[in-house]
Design a protein that fits this description.
eight-stranded mixed β-sheet; Aminopeptidase; globular; 185 residues; alpha+beta
């Protein structure tokens, strides 16, 4: 069962990160990581080719109020995004009665391999289970995205099934893997 969320005014703090709503002042940081080839493609979108592209997407984040900016506490820079979206599991009769959302995330290439994304996933999962009272969270990755696979497995998600995802931006079909994390696991 899908629910509406609004992260306006929500701040989640971890040892090294701060997750908060986007601000117009984040544009330069957003463009800095979203314009690097290979970062967005791991999530099915083209790298940004201009500040205007980043501005438009950031405005969507701010309007829809379901995507956190991931801020590195030491530097104060925005280094990624973390979305809480509708889940594929809402269409699966095994899970359709659950309060459920899907996580999607992107991290600046400069911060890969430091354990930051598992830190963010666990913190946002805690918020979703305690504050939003979700029953489950889903997540997925393209088959060739080993980094996301490791994050998902480290955070205790259970593999459910393989599927396909067509990226309009990349004009390509990806094999993807879908996972679930139940509140009472």
């Amino acid at each position: 069962m899908d629910i509406d969320i609004d992260i306006t005014g929500v701040t989640i703090t971890t040892e090294r990160l701060l997750l908060r709503a986007w601000k117009e002042a984040d544009l330069m940081d957003f463009y800095a990581y979203a314009s690097v080839p290979g970062v967005g493609e791991m999530a099915g979108w083209k790298c940004h080719d201009s500040y205007n592209t980043s501005r438009k997407i950031m405005q969507i984040f701010m309007d829809e109020k379901n995507v956190f900016a991931i801020v590195h506490r030491e530097t104060g820079k925005v280094i990624g995004s973390f979305g809480i979206d509708s889940s594929w599991a809402n269409e699966d009769e095994r899970y359709s009665s659950l309060r459920i959302k899907e996580f999607g995330y992107v991290l600046s290439r400069d911060y890969w391999g430091q354990g930051l994304m598992p830190e963010a996933v666990m913190a946002v999962a805690g918020y979703c289970f305690s504050e939003l009272r979700l029953d489950a969270i889903t997540c997925g990755h393209f088959s060739e995205n080993e980094q996301s696979k490791r994050v998902i497995e480290k955070c205790g998600f259970t593999f459910v099934r393989e599927g396909e995802f067509y990226s309009k931006q990349l004009k390509r079909t990806f094999t993807d893997k879908k996972y679930i994390l139940l509140k009472n696991r």
